[in-house]
Amino acid sequence: MTVPFIGYADRFSTRPGGRIAVKVSSALGGSYEADLVRVRHGDPNPAGPGIRYVPVPSNFAGTYPGRFQPTHLGSYARIAAPGLDTGDAFTFVARVQPWLLSDQPRTVAARVDAAGNGWRLTMKATGARLSVRLGGRAASIAVDAPPVTRRWYELTASIGGGRLSLEQRALAVTWGAKDSGAVSQASDLVPPGASGAPVTIGAALAGDVGTDGFDGRIEDPRLYRGQHAAGGAPDAGDPDLLAWWDFSRGISTQAVEDAGPSGFAGELVNLPTRAVCGSLWTGEEHCWRHNPRHYAAIHFHSDDLGDAGWETDFTVEVPADMKTGAYGVRLRAPGYEDVIPFYVVPPKGRTTAPVAFLASTFTFQVYANYMRFNCDDAYKARRKAWNAYPYHPDEHHDFGHSTYNFHPDGSGISLSSRLRPIINFRPGYLSYEDLRGSGLRHYPADTHLLDWLEEKGIAFDVITDEELDEEGLELLRPYKVLVTGTHPEYHTPRTLDAIQDYVGQGGRLIYLGGNGFYWKVARHPELPHVVEIRRGEGGIRAWAAESGEYYNQLDGTYGGLWRRNGRPPQKLAGVGFSGQGKFEGSYYRRLPASHDPAVAWIFAGVEGETIGDFGLSGGGAAGFELDRADPVLGTPPNAHVLARSEGHQDHFVTVPEELLTHLTTVTGEKPEDLIRAELVYFETAKGGAVFSTGSITFCGSLSHAGYDNNVSQMLENVVRRFMA
After folding, report:
1. Distance in angstroms (rounded) separating the CA atoms of residues 628 and 630
2. Which of 684, 619, 667 is nearest to 647 (CA)?
3. Are 415 and 364 contacting, i.e. CB atoms less than 8 angstroms apart?
4. Measuring CA to CA, which residue among 3, 6, 71 is closest to residue 329?
5. What is the pLDDT of residues 599-648, one digit of tens each?
6. CATH architecture of 76-300
7. Sequence spans of domains, the chain
8. How far apart are CA 172 and CA 600, in angstroms?
């Protein structure tokens, strides 16, 4: 089902004087209105402040004609190769590992011109097939040898010399399988050798769009003159070699290199996965950089999406004096509305406030279009009653899904692009039907904090993960205070280094989330719109990376948990991920350390021993994902553990990296005792300090009782002290 009215921007953020290109698709017919709003509060819950937009004058505001813009899913390699002449006889060879087989043929490789003339090698549940078409004539042969998923085969297809020949050879024995075979028949059909049509690997072309995409891995596709014998390793010195697309080259890029004599290079479309084990992988090497030939495969998926490729409908010209903050392009048509978020960050090299709010855009991107399989009748009723954002990724699959989901072939999604509509990156989007609150995550949940800052009159700049990754410590250095959102989970080495250095050189960090600084992600300078996650050993994982595939393709470094990379969150924030449950919140109880005169200022005006037994996120300030202090993992010895959560529901569990067995933990504590969030404060060098709340739901409590509550008071005490 297609979303009838939606758009996306080419960037998540820009500076004053910058530009945002907006792309819109409408299946409604007629025109639509567009204008600019500042997004102050993105929670539609009627029990809270509600959705708050502040209209902003803009250069683009006006009426635009609607048009439908399709999205084409599926990855493949495209080699233009206009000078590639295969003559009157040629052979194509490739190794393939199918991951999803059906009755429908899926393209391994093809060369078909605009008139439909050419050849196509496919695979389906019954085996490989070679098809040839010339004018109104067609011929095909098929091997009757059902392949086994996730097993490697060498396919050899020959055309010319009066015959069509095809062999499917299993590269390893699978007991009980009859998965090898060969077939040959007479045929005088030979596609034009110098047709000029592109060669495609992993899909065929229909016009300029990939179709019938292959779900699986392809390795060493190559073309030879004449009839070429099957078997044997590729050899660049083979006199019959026409082209050899060696996927072990340029693994960190989207380029396809030709190791053959003529250099017929190509490009990848829609972000297939590289740095995956090929047919040569033995387990002796786990880093692709050390032996690229063991990683000479590319994993293609029929639902990959690197860039929706929509045309620009209008451009937002950001004035040179625009205030930093969260903004949105608001699109309106009769009965429909869409707000496309973006941030305006300060001019480069300047600050406009003492406080910087770090928007967790890498985390937003990793979760982009997350299918949670929770869009049931109760969720839909809540969504309708609150006039919340009306779409859910469970219902719409046109724009790809999240790295928390699987591809159709069962492999985990490891790459995420922001150049597409992102349904859950919207004000008013509900992640859950939260019976005790709003059920917000990520972008809309962070507006609880932005609204509170404005309500309290605390001036702040907004920066995002992208600027921090590109500029590092210099971006943070001028600020007195750095404040995170509710879930700064995903970080590159550069963003983590910058925050760590900022704290170590006198900066003051307020970590207002849970499960933060947890997973390591990668970027590549040629693909600034893409982030990558390899879900390696340990952690609560939506899927597990395959053995030998823990190293990122984009930067070549070991992925997975930051804890597995020697940087537990406790080293930075004093607390780290410890327990998780459903989207429900509880409260904190003050500990004796909170009554130490040295930290009495944190609790000035805070009454009672319990904190945060209320809120718009799960009904309490301590919930869903919980972080705790741990000296062994890096919580400094001068840290004050001020309060600890209690009263969590039975569905909360200890995270896997803390468990040795079902009964024992790394720390020696009982597993159930590790289910806790802790408020922690400690001081660093040169007047620096860290205050951490250890809970994703904390910010949902800020607006309770008209912003007059103990969570709000405590945070205001910390922010103003850190600013002073």
Report:
1. 7
2. 619
3. no
4. 6
5. 999 999 999 999 999 999 999 999 999 999 999 999 999 999 999 999 99
6. Sandwich (2.60)
7. 76-300, 325-723
8. 69
